[in-house]
Amino acid sequence: MKTNDLIFKELLTRGFTLENKTRVWNIADSKLWYLTPSQAQGFLNLEKNEGYKKSIIAKEISLINNYLSSFLKELPFKTYNLIDLGCGDGKKASLFIKEFSKHLSIRYCPIDISAYMVNQAARTIKKLKVGEVLKFKWNISDFENLDNVMPLFRDAGFEHHFMMLLGNTLGNFDRDDILHGIKNSMAKNDVLLIGNGISNGRKSGEWIKDYKNEKINKWLIKVPLLLGLKESDIKYEVRFVNSRIEEIYILQKDISLKHLGKTVKFEKGDIIIVAISYKYTKDKFKQNIKKFFPKVKIYTDKDKSYTLAFCKK
After folding, report:
1. Distance between CA atoms of 138 and 134, rounded to whole angstroms?
2. What is the pTM of this model?
3. Three-class secondary structure of residue 290 per DSSP
4. What is the C-alpha separation between 291 and 240, in angstroms, rounded?
5. Helix residue ranges, H only, the chain
6. Which residues contact 108 (CB under 8 A, 6 or more apart)?
7. Is residue 30 within 8 Å of 113, Cβ to Cβ?
8. Rounded (5°) CA angle 41-42-45
9. Selection from 184, 232, 238 nearest residue 213 by Cα
């Protein structure tokens, strides 16, 4: 497999840290998961995995369906851009559009780093034949550029945003920068709905069991393969540390990779972190959100393992 420049540069820039005597290369960044159509489709295929579907997708969809009418009551205007951050295939957005369009004029705006995802989401919503799908080059964006992108969706008749950050996307980030950036991109009376897993009542072993499966490995392994490693060079593992799931690959032997005139030397036992997923307690989750959005309502499922945060600017 051809070495990907972006992933290789990310590895060089971040380098490694020492965990006791083990070298840890942390390249957990969601923009590296969807660089190719194959990677993007691999993520969408996770919906077919029972563990992942049960722990994230089904819980979130159930919460959305239970509180759609509550969200609707919080919307004072008659027109909204439905901004789908990290849109995936648009199936979750379709739940909102089906209900909201009975009472409001809705324009769907999918945002994703992957053009493949934006196209998939646009197709999903167009099939509903409800409202407009706003699709142009700025839909292909990472979350670091929202300050520039969000104003482009506002025009006469559609000045207000209902923004969604679902699918535990917030938990995949190691910093609060994402919330800061989203808040700065919002105007007064805009709304943000966040969906994230929480750790209340769940043991680390339960989370690990949900994440350690072959379909997730089949998707994530493309990141180290795009570095130039082979499947036989690495072993997939999942661990729960520092309130988060870490999906890692452990080097099985010493390997040198040469690319862009640089050489990276891996040692046997080195760890490459390719994905993280924070599982906050409910109180910690609310505390983090309120640093940016004082006006927030929290909705939690019955077994207290997933939550939605309805935030107002």
Report:
1. 10
2. 0.91
3. helix
4. 26
5. 5-14, 37-44, 50-52, 58-73, 91-100, 115-126, 146-149, 177-185, 204-211, 214-220, 222-227, 282-290
6. 81, 82, 84, 90, 93, 97, 121, 122, 125, 131, 132, 133, 134
7. yes
8. 85
9. 238
Give residue 74's identity as a one-letter amino acid code: E
Domains of the chain as residue ranges with CATH: 5-37+204-278 (no CATH), 50-200+280-312 (3.40.50.150)
Q: Which residue's structure tokens are 């969408």? A: 44
pLDDT in tens, the chain (313 residues): 789 999 999 999 999 999 999 999 999 999 899 999 999 999 998 877 776 777 788 899 999 999 999 999 999 999 999 999 999 999 999 999 999 999 999 999 999 999 999 999 999 999 988 777 877 767 888 888 888 889 989 988 899 999 999 998 999 988 778 899 999 999 999 999 999 988 877 788 988 988 888 889 999 999 999 999 999 999 999 999 988 999 999 999 999 999 999 999 999 999 999 999 988 888 999 999 999 999 999 999 988 889 999 999 8
Backbone torsions φ then ψ of 241, nearest 5 degrees = -140, 150
Tokens representing 61 are 């969809």
Burial 240-271 (b: 16+ CB within 10 A, else e): beeebbbbbbebbeebebebeeeebebeeebb
